[in-house]
Amino acid sequence: MTKKIVILLMDIQDDTEAALSMTAAVDHPLLTLLEASLHKQLAALNIITGKLSTNGPTSLDDLKDEYTIMFHANEVSNPFFESWKRATEWLEWQSRGLAEQMEPLIRNMKKNLEAAGAELENMYGHEAVKFVVPSFYLPATTREG
């Protein structure tokens, strides 16, 4: 396991924790859905980083389920965030500023997951990760080929 993937996953973990702490005091149905998906993402990240820190290098099969959950949870989080952000803009809610503060965290998670997807593909090969990492988290050259 390369250090790069560990660093990326720890950055995603930090951003996820920060986003969850920012939303704790706000109540909105879309935000509740966003928080649920971020909690799933964080739980998977905690398992992955825990195994990587104690076991060192692991095979993809050892963490396949957790990687799948992590990517899927992020995939679900993005539309919830965008919907909530739009709602705060349309209704000019107090939480509009919160949405603006959270946006860099959400964007950074996506960017780091794309980098992690590319790193996993480099480590294990496209055939091994194609059912673990959604195609839009993989480099464009892989998606087209």
Structure commentary:
This protein is an all-alpha fold and 145 residues long. The protein has one domain (3-144). The chain is 81% helix and 0% strand. The protein is built from 6 helices and no strands. Helix 1 (3-23) packs antiparallel against helix 2. It is elongated.
Write the layout of secondary structure elements.
Elements: H1 3-23, H2 29-55, H3 60-91, H4 96-124, H5 126-129, H6 140-144
Helix pairs in contact: 1-2, 1-4, 2-3, 3-4
Q: Stretches where pLDDT falls below 50 for ≥5 residues? A: none
What characteristic shape results from the CA principal axes? elongated
Total domains, how many? 1
Main sheet: strands, sense, barrel: none
User: Secondary-structure element order, as H and E?
Assistant: HHHHHH
Tally of separate helices: 6
Give the C-alpha Rg.
16 Å
The secondary structure category is: mainly alpha
Distance between the termini: 26 Å
Number of strands: 0
What is this entry, summarized?
The protein has helices spanning 3-23, 29-55, 60-91, 96-124, 126-129, 140-144.
